[in-house]
Amino acid sequence: MDKFTIVGGKALEGEVTISGAKNAALPIILGTMLTSEPVVLHNVPDLRDVQTCFKLLTMMGKSYERLSDNSYRITGKVTSNVATYELVKTMRASILALGPLTAYLGSAEVSLPGGCAIGARPVDLHVKGLKELGALFELSDGYIRSSTPDGKLHGGTILMDKVSVTGTENLMMAAALAEGTSVIENAAREPEIVDLAIFLRAMGAQVSGEGSDRIVIEGVPSLHGCEHSIVADRIETGTYLVAAMASHGQVTCLHALPQTLEPVIAKLRQANALIEISDDRIYLDMRGRDIKPVDIITAPHPGFPTDMQAQFMVLNAVASGSSSVTETIFENRFMHVPELIRMGAHLSINGNTVYCEGVPHLQGAQVMATDLRASASLVIAGLVAEGTTVVDRIYHMDRGYEHIERKIRALGGTIERISG
Ligand code: UD1
């Protein structure tokens, strides 16, 4: 298993180009199953989860061609309705095949997902919503099997009991080809939902209300090919901003989308960062400035993103004073905490809150990555710590951060991948 060796203590300084968002690319790639016409996607990040989506497409009978580093043409027609355990277990977001397959073929067999081990992460909201659109379900041998009495879905009103990002995305894709009008109430409002709506509209879908908690979809009989560029990754952006900040450096994030990062930028400013924003770039300067502790409570968008919680924990760990971080979205999303404690952070967990007393320095140590964003926090901790840090099991990191070593090295950080 690959590891990172990081020698800490250098301020990160320079420019970093932000990649396309993993969480937008995954539903959009799987959403190409809704048409048999060619779709060209740009700004697709080169990530393991993205490759898993392409493998899923191939398994369903579609083909793809890489046009350049980040552009793909996807062609062909879905012929199989089965997403097997072998692929689904490596990526929880494979559940996003359920909506498009059920809408396009009238049935689907999707293995129950694996992926990041953060809490129970059920899929009941996906299933309940699709039932409202007329799908029937059975669960056997670890597979969710959907069917439709007349081979198609029918519009309906879905009230999501809890805000779910991939749940909303699955239902948007399913409703796009359902007969009649569908309304998703208490829909997720994340920027990746907005990007999916833009993509579906480019294919001829009639979607409105994305970005609010009520999305309305008028079903159409078929969708056509299109060209679409994936939105910038706000979590990758936030991760580099925190890394520069925690190391008392300065960074310019290029090709970013500042309006998708408002809660993160507000907290960085509260922590005493100097930040300047223009259309597609964010400049942060922390040279010669004290890091002030910030209290964080995660919430669905436009609240503070759970995917930035672990990175902010490192910032608080080296801030001057005490703070708390409360996680409200996922249980068991504090697996980075014991590892940060091994690096000298003063953290204590009480229920879904971590209390933090800032220390002047972290110390390098051997640590273990446990999920995607926890890995990001350990890399940042390694960059600011005194001495050498070895981060084991970085395959989690490869699921979500494009060219991470190259980008960190371009900012002056010392990081090496050790293959093994
Ligand atoms: C997505 C993101 C992930 C992010 C998360 C929250 C993708 C591929 N992943 O994950 O990076 O951390 O949103 O912003 O976009 N829930 C249920 N039943 C369900 C579905 C979800 O109870 O059927 C619960 C979950 O356990 C969790 C909460 O709802 O407590 C939110 O989860 P959800 O928004 O669905 O997360 P994902 O879409 O899996």
Summarize the SSE layout with pairings.
Layout: E1 3-7, E2 13-17, H1 22-31, E3 39-42, H2 48-59, E4 63-68, E5 71-75, E6 82-83, H3 85-88, H4 98-105, E7 107-111, H5 124-132, E8 136-140, E9 143-147, E10 157-159, H6 165-176, E11 181-185, H7 191-202, E12 206-208, E13 214-218, E14 226-229, H8 234-246, E15 250-254, H9 262-270, E16 274-278, E17 281-285, E18 296-297, H10 309-317, E19 322-326, H11 336-342, E20 346-350, E21 353-357, E22 366-368, H12 372-384, E23 388-392, H13 395-398, H14 404-410, E24 414-418
Parallel strand pairs: 2-15, 3-14, 6-7, 10-11, 18-19, 22-23
Antiparallel strand pairs: 1-23, 1-24, 3-5, 4-5, 7-9, 8-9, 11-13, 12-13, 15-17, 16-17, 19-21, 20-21
Helix pairs in contact: 1-2, 1-7, 4-6, 5-6, 6-7, 8-10, 8-12, 10-12
Bound molecules: uridine-diphosphate-N-acetylglucosamine.
Uridine-diphosphate-N-acetylglucosamine binds at residues 23, 26, 93, 119, 121-126, 162, 164-167, 192, 306-307, 329-330.
Bound small molecules, which ones?
Answer: uridine-diphosphate-N-acetylglucosamine
- Order of strands, main sheet, comes to 22-23-1-24
Low-confidence sequence ranges: none
Q: What is the percent of helical residues?
A: 25-40%
- Strand content is 25-35%
Strand count, sense and closure of the main sheet? 4 strands, mixed
Overall mean pLDDT? 95
Silhouette = elongated
**Nearest-angstrom radius of gyration?**
21 Å
Helix vs. strand class: alpha/beta
- Give the assembly state of these chains: single chain
Number of strands: 24
Distance between the termini: 5 Å
How many helices? The count is 14
